[in-house]
Design a protein that fits this description.
The protein has ten helices and eleven strands. By secondary structure, it is α/β, with parallel strands linked by helices. The protein has a single domain, classed as 2-Layer Sandwich (BirA Bifunctional Protein, domain 2), CATH 3.30.930. The strands form two sheets. An eight-stranded mixed sheet has the order 7-8-9-10-6-2-1-11, sandwiched between helices. Strand 9 and strand 10 form a beta hairpin. Helix 4 (about 115-125) runs antiparallel to helix 8.
């Protein structure tokens, strides 16, 4: 472990929120890190179910009719890569936010540092997981779990059996206002119908997904609460965080940002922010 815990950190076990608000809270946490000198780690859920598009993902890769018919919200992340289907059962998500001056400037070194608690969490669950040993070519580029697998930030299981190893977690970083934000998704269970259905393609079917992706439940016998607790404790202990919450100003700022950016068609479909903050 690093000495990253020498700074002030808070751990938030967040409540389920719409995807647009969850993405907005990351930017709010970035502001808090700079202005209030408080860094954030959190575990969170998506409710309702959400497709988070990658920053440069083309709009025509989304099956908008499927999303509408199945109550799946759509937002666009600040990070690149492909889209990910999230819900409050099959997905477990986390965020790490810290000033850029306090973490490695090299991207690969920063991934290695920020993924320490993620690998520790898998270990606590009993999942044989590690970074992918080598790159694998993409099957379907618009989908995060079906894109090329990268050893720097994609985690596979069972790690000790290269022939059987499949992707179990994807992690991504971006920098904003001199802050590093990493978020990631851990596959607790498999929902291949939804993961495939949110994309506008006939070339990918459910077995395509299950051949490439595994889940915590597929690897070990653990319930979701215990898996979430393992991730939360690993994150909190990694940076010696104290339990915390969002304050009222942060929640208000996040709701404002969600409305004018992450939940707005101008951002989701064109990567444009058309209105100014009201706060």
């Amino acid at each position: 472990m690093s000495d990253i815990g020498s700074r002030e950190w808070r751990f938030i076990r967040d409540e389920p929120r719409p995807g647009a608000v969850q993405m907005a809270l990351e930017e709010v946490a970035a502001r808090t890190a700079l202005e209030d000198d408080v860094r954030t780690v959190r575990v969170y859920d998506w409710e309702p179910s959400t497709l988070s598009m990658g920053y440069r993902q083309a709009v025509d890769t989304v099956d908008w009719e499927f999303c509408d018919a199945n109550g799946v919200d759509v937002t666009r992340r600040q990070t690149g890569g492909g889209g990910i289907y999230h819900d409050s059962h099959a997905d477990i998500s986390y965020t790490i936010v810290a000033p850029a001056t306090e973490v490695p400037g090299d991207l690969m070194e920063c991934y290695a540092l920020f993924c320490e608690p993620i690998l520790e969490a898998f270990d606590r669950m009993g999942v044989d997981a590690d970074f992918a040993p080598a790159r694998k070519k993409a099957i379907y580029q618009p989908a995060c779990y079906l894109r090329d697998i990268h050893p720097a930030h994609d985690i596979v299981a069972p790690a000790s059996d290269a022939d059987r190893a499949k992707k179990i977690s994807g992690n991504a970083q971006y920098r904003q206002r001199d802050v590093v934000i990493q978020h990631g998704s851990l596959s607790f269970d498999l929902e291949p119908g939804a993961h495939v259905g949110v994309f506008a393609t006939d070339d990918v079917v459910e077995p395509t997904f299950t051949d490439r992706v595994t889940s915590i439940r597929e690897q070990v016998d653990i319930d979701r609460k215990n898996a979430v607790d393992a991730l939360g404790s690993a994150l909190a202990e990694w940076c010696e965080a104290t339990p915390g919450t969002w304050n009222a100003d942060e929640l208000e700022a996040a709701r404002d940002l969600a409305g004018r950016k992450f939940g707005d068609d101008a951002w989701i479909k064109r990567r444009e922010v058309t209105t100014q903050s009201t706060s």
